[in-house]
Design a protein that fits this description.
The chain is mainly α. It has one domain (about 1-35, about 90-259). The protein is built from ten helices and no strands. It is found in: Membrane. It is a multi-pass membrane protein. Keywords: Amino-acid biosynthesis, Cell inner membrane, Cell membrane, Membrane, Sulfate transport, Transmembrane, Transmembrane helix, Transport.
């Protein structure tokens, strides 16, 4: 379990060198721009809406004393909630819209890592449209599951002392779904939707390990939003490809013997 997560974490060491060696940066330009714009929109929404929500909540305070404190506190909490929900949504929106750009990244890495197997590797026929549809489907599914699980955990995390346990659980859940989306860029070429979901479930701690760094990089102001996808997708592609090879699910021979 921990060993698998650490393996996925370790694969980040090769991200920058692989991106430079295989000239992958060109594929990340549009996703990086989308990521930056979406991140800015979340911050703008928090800044623009928090005061209005604060005033709205303050109207429920029937006493004059303390109204300003209530309004200020409500505005701050509203801003934090908008940012929190925004960034939970952020990763799924960005991953879904970036799907057509990420498949070539994984494919180039596959050619590089497994040159000797390339002629035997089985690929599903996909198009940019089908990649986008699958990305939307996977990430909508993951977003709904993540919200259903993490929102109660975040509320429980407000409990003094033991709340830290629930906060950590929430972080690992979010990490899992971030890694899930990153791994599916590779799985999309090898498995249908159901089999791809099953594969990630069976290798969930690799997804968690990849997602931990994804979540940590997001905490870096501005730079994190720009670099999070290139780093995490490159690392996840390496992890997933090596898993497919290890589990003998990559080549034509393996697929024939499994049918």
């Amino acid at each position: 379990m921990i060993k698998n997560a650490l393996k996925a974490l370790a694969d980040y060491r090769h991200s920058f060198s692989l991106m430079s060696k295989l000239k992958l940066w060109q594929y990340f330009l549009v996703p990086m721009l989308i990521s930056l714009l979406f991140g800015i929109s979340i911050i703008a929404a928090a800044y623009g809406l928090s005061d209005n929500l604060g005033r709205l909540i303050a109207r429920m305070w029937i006493w004059e004393n303390g109204r300003e404190v209530v309004e200020t506190t409500a505005a701050i909490v509203s801003a934090l909630l908008i940012i929190l929900l925004g960034f939970i949504t952020y990763k799924h929106v960005i991953m879904a819209l970036s799907a057509p750009f990420m498949s070539p990244v994984s494919e180039k890495m596959e050619r590089h890592l497994f040159t000797e197997l390339h002629e035997d590797i089985v690929h599903r026929k996909t198009s940019n449209t089908s990649q986008l549809i699958r990305g939307l489907r996977i990430n909508l599914r993951n977003l709904l599951y993540e919200l259903a699980i993490t929102l109660p955990l975040l509320l429980l995390s407000l409990i003094p002392v033991i709340g830290i346990v629930f906060a950590l659980c929430s972080f690992f859940i979010q990490s899992y779904y971030a890694g899930f989306g990153n791994m599916d860029y590779t799985l999309e070429r090898h498995f249908n939707y159901r089999d791809g979901v099953r594969f990630v479930k069976n290798n969930r701690w690799y997804a968690v390990g990849n997602g931990i760094v994804f979540m940590a990089v997001l905490l870096i102001p501005v730079v994190g939003i720009i670099l999070v996808l290139p780093l995490s997708v490159t690392a996840a592609s390496k992890t997933t490809l090596e898993l497919l090879r290890k589990q003998k699910q990559l080549t034509a021979t393996a697929h024939t013997s499994n049918n």
